[in-house]
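Help! Submission page says 'invalid entity' but I think these are all valid:
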Amino acid sequence: MKSSDSLRFKLTSCAAVVFFLSAIIVGGIIYYRHQLEMVANKLMEDVVWVTYQFDREVRELRMALIDASVTDLDAMLLRYEILYSRTHLFRRGQVAEFVNTYDVASDELREAIALVEALDSQFLALAGRQDLLTTTLRAGLAEQLVTLQQLTETILLECNAQVASMKVDERETLLLLYAAVLVLILLIMSTGSVLVMALIKESRERADKANMLKAQSRELAQAVANAEAASQAKSEFMAVMSHEIRTPLNGVVGVADLLSDESMSQQGHQYVQVLKESASGLQAVINDILDYTKLEAGSLDLDRRPFDLKAFLDQLCAGYRLRSENDDLRFHCQLDSRLPDHVEGDVNRLRQVLMNLLNNAFKFTTEGIIVLKVAAEAEGGVKFTVSDTGCGIDASQQHRLFEPFSQVDTSIARRHEGTGLGLAICQRLVTAMGGNIGMESQLGLGSRFWFEIPLPGVEHEVSEGVSKITNGDRLPPWRVLVVEDNPINQTLARAMLEQLGQLVIVAGNGQEALETLNAERCDVVLMDMQMPVLDGLETTRRWRAQESQGHLPIIAMTANVMPEDRECCFEAGMDDIICKPFKREDLRRILTQYMDEFVGDATPSGSDRSLSDPMPLDTPHDKRVVRLPEPGIAPKSNSTAVSLSTSDVLDPEIVAELQESLDREVIEGLFSTYLTRLGARQANMQVMLEQGDRDSLRQAAHSLKGASSSLGCAAMARAASSLEQLALHDDVSSLQRRMAELETLKTLTRDSLKSARLLTS
Amino acid sequence: MKRHIMLGILVGWVASFNVAAQELASPSGPVILSVSGKITHFNMGNEAHFDREMLLALEQRKTLTHTPWHDGQVRFEGPLGRSLLEAVGASGTSMRVVALDDYAATVPVADFLDHNVILAMSQDGKPLKVRDHGPLFIIYPFDEEPGLLNEETLTRSVWQVKAIEIR
């Protein structure tokens, strides 16, 4: 239907064009013929005119002949001369050509000219001799002229007839052409009207189509709006559910925390441990979801305040150092000496990102080292790098890391719990803080995650979020008023605070709290938000209105973590917020902030210093990290390891770097682990070689190369590299030789390490 | 080239001065052309009559051209139309040219001033007789100015001219 329409349209267009061109051509022909006719007409007129003149002149001469006796003879002779001149026009020029072409009265014309010429001698003889014009001569001349007159009359009539017939012919041709033009115009008009009809039909169809598209786009927009609304509803549902789960979870976490301090059986302790771990896992998941929901909603508010960067990092690292206290895993924190003491930034968000990266590193590293490096960058930037020697991430998976709900693969997801939101949250937080985040990793060798954010240094300010009172210290006993209506939470808060050595007073609602505050002195208030009688916000407002001496710190306890909730708390006059569920450590941290003001400028205890990194930091920061091996280190030579010196076996630069950045024991641990695993690697490779599994052999060699070069065992790395290159193609005996070479190098490396005092046993 | 033009103008000016200074001579031979109407120089009543000698004394020109009445290119010779106008001190805008057979045509004076129109007296070196469309034949330079070859100009190409009346 559609295609036949378009075919018809094309045909009609073609026809219209053809007709139009034909009309133009015929028009051109008509114009050309008109031009020709103008010339021809002139010629025909000339012919008629000349023949008429010829005839007339004969008549004039006859008249003159009759009058010649009475008038001048010369007049008659002049007439003859003129008549003679007329004959010239038939003998040459256009008229002669016309007469010859159409063969008009040619016999008569020839006769007439001959007659005129015959008269010539008779007339010439008369010149000046009137006496010769006798009556007989006159009669003779008259008779000849009568004959001539008859001829010229015939000529005139025939020419006239010829011209008339030519004109009729021409007119008929033109009429035919005009008729053709008329027909063509009619055809053009009809095809034109067909085209116009087609165009009208098409434009109507187009309008219909446009209307349909408009309707579809409206439907699409509606669908998008619906989808957005649904997504919004889902986000809200998640936020609400998470919030609803938080409140009872507060009880679970708190009770588990308290239970673990109770004396009970070994079995009981194990159960409590499992309970605690599960609860904190659940808490982490809920926190992630809430964070992500907030980030997606775009309601992330940064709380920029000045804080002590080094103290913050010391505190953070202290916890991880404890976690790494086993033989296989070491944790190191390296701080750039150029870092400013006090910086401005959102310390809580920074902690969140760092903990996420460090937790990941610990999660995926079973042995080796994890290093947190903090370096000052240009223009107030600070770069945080977390490197590990864990399982690493395949290059093809790396780009998906920062997408939400993506863990590297499902097998890892089974082994390690998590929402897969951590890195997505980190990325959004870092971006929100005006920085950027990135990573490099090699499968089987380790990963390095880094982020750089602007943390401009500030002059010394009251530090917040970082305490001068450190983990080991006991808190001074303060009078703490807990305002909470839920009996479980009352018990929980009381127990936690008492364990922190605080004196606890409990009030069941805002009204009771105000009464208590009026009756006795309190140092700090922990205030629940939703309570019967008088809620937390209103209670705070009333107290602030009547507060007479000093400023009483009031800390909100809430599960509402959205920024607008925080804003409400601060507007009501609260000083801080502690998020439910909280642990003893959270309580401790927040209390310390207010106690610091009383501790003032007291010298920090020795234990504080002991938490910071023991290593000197005056060397360039980039040398203090164990370098990730570059892929494919080419072997320097293929020579056997027989005559290698220590400097050939070990890369002095890397060894120096290791010594510079790590403790002796750590280094020794690393190397002994390396050598132990080397034996196992060799055994595996031998099996692979015997089974002919060359691809696995190549991968094992590649892995050995990476491990060796990162520890500076250069000779071993070279041997492994050449083995890697040859594994697929070389013959078995040659590979066996190379395996033997590895064994030699193992001994050589051990000896070199011992002589370099990097290994004692 | 420029110099020739300057010279031409000078000669023309001097010539017109001479003509203006002298009275128009009287014809000694048979009169072949009489000019009447708006003229300032006369030699017969209020007309100027010319014989062959007087016409030959005017500025002459040769015109090589084709015409509808001849075969091939023909060489015509005779006085320039505008020199005739000068000679009689013509001041009109058009001319009534009358032939021996009383054929008459109106020719604008501008034609004589703008184009090198001659009153041909000879054809291919032979004097034009009445039987050859003489004695005077108004010849336009058709070959030099092909634009002149049109119906209008052709009707103005009067042969056997005997009188001109300036209007």
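Support: the input was valid. A stray whitespace character was the problem, and the output above is from the cleaned input. Residues 212-258 of chain A form one domain.
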